[in-house]
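Contributing: when you submit paired examples, paste them exactly as shown. First protein:
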Amino acid sequence: MDSVLARKSIVLGVTGSIAAFKAVALASELTKQGAVVDVVMTEAATRFVAPLSFQAITHRPVHTDMFALLAEVEIGHVSLGQRADVLVIAPATANVLAELATGLADNLLLTTALATRAPTIIAPAMEPLMYSHPATQASVARLREWGAVVLEPVEGRLASGRVGRGRMVEPAEIVEAIRAVLARRQDYAGKRVVVTAGPNYEPIDPVRFIGNRSSGKMGYAVAEAARDRGAEVTLVSGPSALTPPAGVTVVPVETALEMQRAVEEAVAGADVLLMAAAVADYRAAEQVERKIKREKEGDVTIRLVRNPDILAGLAGRPVFKVGFAAETEDLLANARAKLERKGAQMFVANDVLAPGSGFGTDTNQVTLLDWLGGTTPLPLMSKRAVADAILDRVLELLPIWRCTLSPDPSP
């Protein structure tokens, strides 16, 4: 039995998709882990899966009738909504996404969604063209703005025989999302956190640039985790294809100099700075105003000059500074040297050549080093789990570091 899920009230909404059979497996796993699962089915959902399937697994009545009362004095959608620790809608069709995003409430599931203030997790399932349609994407964006966790559908073979991005995520991933939501803490409430993420693009000419392989996934995961734990978050992001996290102030930049200016402004009054960006070490000494033409120029020599070290430049600022070291050799020695040289309080070191730990992956394996000499190796985990582990360690060290600060000499 899972300690996070035990005795938690999960309202599972099931809508009219062929993926409804996966919801049976989801209900089964949640029940095995000790959760109390109340299933709410739309009429269309009952065409794909019989309510009896869920009732046999959860040992609880399945709710389908908008006007049925759970008890003589209980109104169904109100009682379900108030009781829920988490509302999960899996699968969610394009129609239901649109109804949720516009506040419609013409069935029991939709009214329950409006009547609850519990965290909401949504797992869409539909044909790829339907999911990519601007109307569906607008619905997803609106629901995320309202705080819903939307688990993007994955690539795979669909019931129609087509292959594309439309398959509902597997029940195990939904269970992990439920655990994460239930485990959310507000231990960063009242704190201001600045996170950098992604690469820098240093222009050579109007077409070409010097860049690196950073996707921004680690920094975005840290920003989302800090937000979920109650922090006021500013994300200074280099170019990235990732969707900016809702509820986070995003400052887009391209070059290292732009990132430096944005960070220096953002850290004023901040409690924690986490420099997860892959900041460019060099930039072209001169940027050519017109595109370099191979036919005219032949071989080209580009003179590079050093970019400023953003983290080292903040050594005197009263903010807890966390650096990131992406290394290919001598991991701990190189990271420890950076920690001391840059005046940081903590460094997150990872070997980008290790399996599952390089740029663009969804996982990471890191070691946390601190200015007190501590070394904390972590196993291979999702980047979101790594983000929470980093934030946990920062909270442990923050009060110790504050005690080392010189007292304010002002009266």
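Second protein:
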Amino acid sequence: MQRILLVADNQNDITQLADLMENRYELMVANGRQTATKLAAEKGPALILVDVKLAEVEGLKACEFADRKDGEALPVIFITERSRPEDIAKVFGFGGHDYIAKPFFTDEVYARLRPHLQLRQTKASLRECVATLEQKNRHLRDISEQLENVARIDLLTAIPNRWYMLERMKDEVARSFRHQRPLTVIAINIDDFKAIIDNYGRDCSDFVLQSVTDILQTNRRGEDVVARWGGDVFLVMLPETYIADGGRVAERIRARVEDARIDYSGRTAPVTVTVGVAEFDADIGIEGTVEKAESAVAEGKRAAKNCVVLSSK
């Protein structure tokens, strides 16, 4: 049941309106400005009825009543004894949205109240719809972000995948050009990975990938980016790094993997890596530079494995 606040001190008017509204609306009564504004703030009526005489005496205007939830002005209908143009002008001068002239006629009272109350209900429904849509939009944004993360993150190792690394490399190359800084790429390939799968099983090979990932993450600098390039190959991007310094980083990684004990289900899997290092070459671009690092890995595999090879210019 919608609430209506009646601001009046004429007992006859109060009684008549209470009788008219019985079983239709919940009527609250205030006999002055202070009580009226307090009730409006605390009880949240849908509409205000104000005796224009009382409003004149107390300087009460429609703008003093606002919805407690959203601060929007509440509809205010003034009660007037006369409906001459100057009297109606006075009603709207107080900021009223409508008026009811005395004596009261039931059909007219309802006709005056109904559109304002319906408008209030419609606005409330729209606010609820907007709130629901905003909530759904936030949910969709969250899902979109999650999907974007899934598309960029390798699910097994929880580090960036090939596509995300390519995006980061493009950004870093652009920055390197602006500031005339070097950029080095390290390609890391786990030695005899197929033998690990054959001898220890897929679950163990997955554990090996995760363990190598942990070593790479632990031994990277804050600005470096580690990614799973594909299969048993990882890529590390070293911003502002020349190939000689990149070679030292690569050797540290190789040694850490060799020294690590990777135990799985009570068995120790011997793991080593072959590492290729290449400095970014603008003439061949990102893909060409990565291919040089991978070619250095292939050279190391042919030679002895478990080594670091720096790509020649």
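If you have annotations for the second protein, write them as plain sentences, like these:
The chain has two domains: 3-127, 162-310.
The CA atoms of residues 282 and 289 lie 9 Å apart.
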